Amino acid sequence: MEGKETTIYTIKVNLPGGIVSVGDFYEILKAAEKAGIDTVRFGNRQQLYLQVSPKSWKIWSIISLFQTLNMR
């Protein structure tokens, strides 16, 4: 019996100075939810990690997420 391989993609967002406003963070989370992001966590070095599995992601919403991040 073969093991089931699970692929998880991680999107790393660098937060300048480790700071993100509440409004910006809320917009990032809304876009991430819309894109089917499974997990959101903070890194040790001023990063925000968004994890998504290929089964749940919505590619056009991922592109929208990147556009949201680029506006900041």
Oligomer: single chain
In DSSP terms, counting alpha (H) and pi (I) runs of 4 or more, how many helices? 2
Low-confidence stretches: none
Q: How does the helix and strand content classify structurally? A: alpha+beta
CA radius of gyration is: 13 Å
Strand percent estimate: 15-25%
Described by strand count, sense and barrel closure, the largest sheet is: 3 strands, antiparallel
Supply the CATH architecture: 2-Layer Sandwich
From the spread of the alpha carbons, the general shape counts as globular
Short note summarizing the structure:
The chain is an alpha+beta fold.
What can you tell me about this protein's structure?
This is Nitrite/Sulfite reductase ferredoxin-like domain-containing protein. InterPro entries: NiRdtase/SiRdtase_haem-b_fer, Nit/Sulf_reduc_fer-like_dom_sf. GO terms for molecular function: oxidoreductase activity. Residues 4-52 form the Nitrite/Sulfite reductase ferredoxin-like domain. Strand 2 (39-42) and strand 3 (47-52) form a beta hairpin. 35% of the residues lie in helices and 22% in strands. The protein has 72 residues and is α+β, with helices and mostly antiparallel strands. The chain has a single domain (9-70), classed as Alpha-Beta Plaits. Strands 1-3-2 form a three-stranded antiparallel β-sheet, with no helix packed on it. The termini are far apart. It contains two helices and three strands, in the order βαββα.
Question: What is the topology?
Answer:
Layout: E1 9-14, H1 22-34, E2 39-42, E3 47-52, H2 59-70
Provide the descriptors you would attach to this structure in a database record.
single chain; alpha+beta; 3-stranded antiparallel sheet; NiRdtase/SiRdtase_haem-b_fer; Nit/Sulf_reduc_fer-like_dom_sf; 35% helix; Nitrite/Sulfite reductase ferredoxin-like domain-containing protein; oxidoreductase activity
